[in-house]
Design brief:
Elements: H1 3-30, E1 39-44, H2 49-60, E2 64-69, H3 74-79, E3 90-94, E4 99-101, H4 106-115, E5 120-124, E6 144-150, E7 155-161
Parallel strand pairs: 1-2, 4-5
Antiparallel strand pairs: 1-3, 3-4, 5-6, 6-7
Length: 167
């Protein structure tokens, strides 16, 4: 092998390694990170199946969960300040006291906990939107909003989910 061929191979190797490293960095930046083992206390009705599926979703994204079954969740939801018209089937409370109501995609809980918006108490996905985590219905999907629950009880849109890919 000649010196010029060796230089050419070495050059291609260095360029290939640089491209590979750049590509891996881009992929890592675009991939949502797992929650740093944040504990969630999940309050639900013992007969709710979709809550169990949502709990699995949260665990798959790095959350540790403790389940507390309640026959009636109304008192707890009122105590936590979740507006009546925005309640869902389960309520989660993080170890640092933030409230997450309903079928919220884990990536948005992780984002919220990283940001900890000033004046915010938590997030809400009202009702049980088809296609949200825990409410998978095959290919069906209903767009929905994730609401920011403010300390004063008001809400504002935190994120709009228009496709399963956004979850």
């Amino acid at each position: 092998m000649t010196i010029s061929k060796l230089k050419a191979y070495l050059f291609l190797f260095v360029i290939g390694a640089a491209i590979s490293t750049y590509s891996q960095a881009e992929t890592a930046a675009a991939t949502p990170q797992l929650a740093p083992s944040t504990a969630l206390s999940v309050h639900k009705n013992p007969n709710c199946g979709c809550c169990g599926v949502w709990i699995e979703h949260a665990q798959q994204h790095g959350f540790t969960t403790t389940v507390q079954n309640h026959v009636n969740l109304n008192g707890l939801k009122a105590e936590l300040g979740i507006p009546v018209g925005l309640q869902a089937c389960h309520t989660s409370v993080s170890s640092d006291g933030f409230v997450f109501e309903g079928h919220i995609p884990a990536r948005y809980i992780t984002q919220f906990l990283a940001e900890k918006p000033s004046g915010a108490r938590g997030l809400i996905v009202a009702n049980m939107p088809m296609g949200s985590p825990g409410m998978d219905m095959g290919r069906g999907f209903q767009p929905y909003d994730i609401l920011l629950l403010l300390d004063n009880g008001n809400t504002e849109v935190y994120a709009t989910i228009n496709s399963k890919a956004q979850q």
